[in-house]
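Let us practice reading a record.
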Amino acid sequence: MPLKTTTAPLPVTDDSVVLVTGGTGGLSTAILKAVSRTARPHVWLLGRTDVSELDLYQDVWTESVRSVTRGDLIRHLRQREDLPLRSVIAKADRLLRAHEVQKACGSLRDLLGPDRVHYAACDLRDISAVERAVAAIRKESGDIDVVIHAAGVFKPALVQHISLADFQAVRDTKLVGYHHLKQALAGHRPTLWCNIGSAAGTYGIAGDIAYAGANDFLAAASRRSAARGTHELTIAFPLWAESGFGSSEVNRGHLESQGFLTPITDEEGTQIFLTELAAAAAGSVGTYLGHRERGAFAVGRPGYVRKPNADGYLRRSADRAQDAHSWQLRLDPVRDVYLEDHLVDGKATVPGTLMLEIAAEAAERVFPHLVTHGFRTARFEAFIKPFAGRRPLALTVTAVPASGHRPQHGTLAVDVTIESDGPVLDSRVVSPRRRHFRTRVLLGPTGRSGRTVPDPRIGTGRPVPDPYYHADSPVWLRGIFFNTAESHASDGAQAWSTWAPSLTGTGMLAARRIPFLMLCAALRSVALTPTSDDKQSVYVPRALDHIDLYAPGANDLELTQHYGNGIHLSTSGIKDARACAPDGTLLLEVTGVTMATMGTVPAHVPNDAARVAG
């Protein structure tokens, strides 16, 4: 989630009057501290906490005892007032919240000025309270220039368990509060209105229907208001982990279990806010998607979020000759250094599944509105060892819409080849191009899902190493290609392993079209079963007849972010391979596998020894 930065001035000055809902919550305070770097506006904070009774108890927080715990305050009130214990506890909690508001306001006054920060208790769901607050602000400070609607309540629960009161509190603080503010300011329109929303409104989270729905409303409302001439925008944030709801251990645990909403720091959050506010595009909805959101979209709504084009392999525009599209490709030893972790006979070699990735990119460049559903008749005719010569090997990728293909369910087909230029025999003669690879790419719309299959882990099986991690293997894998664990083989032909990659620092995977690493790992399942003399064969693919992708549009990074390391890779023999989600949903399947044997390695070498070598 690269963050944009800006040097543009904020539409907030020392003369601005800014109304901020959400009281002195951590998010509101963090935003105002960021604003204070460039301006010292007059700020009015509207919050639910009533601070009026705090004046009667200021002696509790003396200069010598600034830190008062909840227990301290309860004991103090029990000695001072004749109240039931339940009432004492409730009062102590109110006073502690009021004291936190007072401290936060004091901190903001230190930054903005002693007379520039005001607080008013106001329940946004009460139209009378909102109208009184707005009238008081206008009487004291004049017209309101900027509204930052940051109020929110977070009480996650499934619909069948949440009370109506809690549901309404979550929904109405944002939704009804928005309408009440609009009503109170109807005759005095601010010059800028900014809603603080959440990425949850874009995707939705199980158990948070009220919260997600309210944030989705804010996004729609800003577009509608902008169409009517109001300068309004909504910023849909990921999870503020330090100051927002994510700062609560309980809330953070709930959201972690959902696997959604990427945590961001206060620094990242305020940078997003300042950038969007400086741009202040009316009607805009800036939705910031982190790795968790992108992974969820890729699996649940494939194709909804476009992949970046900058890091694709086919960087230049295609050359056209009738229906054929062609690209010149020269892999770079610095940019593509990860190929040094995929060695065939000691030389960096393009994996066969990476050839499939390049083919998918070419096909999607021909039909950019579709995503790759699979491949047919993939043939690997010669290794691509791009750095074996004095210069990186020059490749030509050609894509031609397939003739004679019968479309099914909106699918199209593109035939793709990868060839290299032949060596120069003398100054006038060049040998013919060499074809390394060909396949037919199947493209279709987004929204496909695989069937559920039985757990591939049949019985206990025998733990075995992955032969490709052995340092003496003719095909030696390290780095991002070292991505499986817990490999087992049964007494029959079945074998399986667990997807366990380390993808830290592999940003280049974000632009990939297919899970080529997972495909490679799944195909390696056919090499797990030891031979009778306790050796393992090391294979390379020569032909893959059918490859079906059941999460089209999702790549390795996105599938891993969505499912974690619980994906199972398996084979029921040397002719097939598959990958399944933890719940048994099929993610990809390969049939009609033909392998070529490169050699063998002992089956008893532990993976740990190979890991050190990698």
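A brief commentary: Residues 319-444 form a domain with the Thiol Ester Dehydrase; Chain A fold (CATH 3.10.129.110).
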